[in-house]
Write a structure and sequence with these properties.
GO terms for molecular function: uracil phosphoribosyltransferase activity. Its EC number is 2.4.2.9. InterPro entries: PRTase-like, PRTase_dom, PyrR_bifunctional. By secondary structure, this protein is of the alpha/beta class. The chain has a single domain, classed as Rossmann fold. 28% of the residues lie in helices and 33% in strands. The strands form four sheets. Strands 1, 4, 5, 8, 9, 10, 11 and 12 form an eight-stranded mixed sheet that branches. Strands 2-3 form a two-stranded antiparallel ribbon. Helix 2 packs across helix 3. The chain is globular and about 65 Å long. It starts with a strand and ends with a helix. The model has no long low-confidence stretch (mean pLDDT 96). Bound molecules: 1-O-pyrophosphono-5-O-phosphono-alpha-D-ribofuranose, uracil and magnesium ion (MG). The site of uracil has 10 residues, from helix 6.
C-alpha cells in the first residue's frame, strides 16, 4: 500500500484539520461537515493526479484544443454515517462517478472489545473499476477492513484508493495488508495514539456525532 500523508507539506489543509479538532469550533455542526467536505475536495484533487488520462479534443468558439482527461470508471464508496460529508467532498470533483453506501457500526461486547457490524450495502458492480473508499476516521482500521470484505461480493476493482481525514498509527499499519498491494491511502494527518475505547488521540472525538448529532 502506498501511503500519502498530506499534512507533511504545509498547506491551507492545516486550517481545516485544526478547525475539525478544535473543541469549540467543532460544536458548529455545519462548519464541521463543511470542513470534512473541504478536506475531501483536497484529498480527491491529490488522488486525481494518479488516475489514467487520455487525449481528447474540446471545441471552443475559436478552435480545437487537445486536452488530457481522466478516463477511468470510478466508484465512490462511503461508510455511514461519518463518511457522508467526505463523500460530498469527493463528489464535488468527480461529476459522473458511481456511488456506493455501506453501513458499519461498532457492536460492543462485555469485555470492552467490539465487533464491526455491516448491515446495509448498496453498490454498483466494482468489476475492473477504480474503487474510492472514504471514511473520515481510521482508528483501529476494522471498519475499512469489514466494509472492503463486504464489497468483494460486487466484483474485483482494478485499483483501490482510500480517503480519510485522521488516522491512528495503529490503524494505518493494520490496514496495510488488508487491501491489495496497489492500494493508495490518501490521508490528511496521522495521530500517535488510540485509547482503550478505540478513539484516536488526540483525534477530534466522534466524527459521526459531531456531524449529525448524538445517537442512542
Ligand atoms: O477504524 P475503526 O476503529 O473501525 O473506527 C472508525 C469508524 O468509526 C467511525 O464510525 P462510527 O462507528 O463512530 O459510526 P458513525 O459514523 O455512525 O458515528 C468512523 O466513521 C469509522 O467508520
Ligand atoms: O476517534 C474516533 C474513532 C472512531 N470513530 C470516531 O469518530 N472517532
Ligand atoms: Mg461515530
Amino acid at each position: 500500500m502506498k501511503i500519502h500523508i498530506l499534512d507533511k507539506t504545509n498547506s491551507v489543509l492545516n486550517n481545516f484539520i485544526a478547525e475539525l479538532r478544535n473543541i469549540e469550533i467543532q460544536k458548529d455542526a455545519m462548519r464541521f461537515r463543511r470542513n470534512i467536505e473541504r478536506v475531501g475536495e483536497i484529498l480527491s484533487y491529490e488522488m486525481s493526479k494518479h488516475l489514467s488520462y487520455s487525449r481528447e479534443e474540446v471545441e471552443t468558439p475559436l478552435g480545437i484544443k487537445e486536452v488530457l482527461l481522466p478516463h477511468d470508471e470510478l466508484v465512490l464508496g462511503s461508510i455511514l454515517r461519518a463518511g457522508l460529508p467526505l463523500h460530498l467532498g469527493v463528489l464535488n470533483y468527480f461529476d459522473r462517478i458511481e456511488n456506493a453506501f455501506i453501513s458499519a457500526y461498532r457492536s460492543h461486547k462485555s469485555d470492552g472489545d467490539f465487533d464491526i457490524v455491516v448491515e446495509y450495502l448498496a453498490a454498483p458492480s466494482l468489476e475492473n473499476k477504480i474503487l474510492i473508499l472514504v471514511d473520515p476516521m481510521l482508528a483501529t482500521g476494522k471498519s475499512l477492513e469489514s466494509v472492503y470484505e463486504a464489497l468483494k461480493s460486487h466484483g474485483v476493482p482494478k485499483e483501490v484508493h482510500l480517503i480519510s481525514v485522521i488516522g491512528s498509527k495503529f490503524g494505518v499499519d493494520y490496514i496495510k495488508d488488508k487491501f491489495p498491494e496497489n492500494t493508495n491511502l490518501w490521508i490528511a494527518t496521522v495521530d500517535e495514539d488510540l485509547n482503550n475505547r478505540g478513539y484516536i488521540v488526540p483525534g477530534l472525538g466522534d466524527a459521526g456525532d459531531l456531524a449529525f448529532g448524538i445517537k442512542l
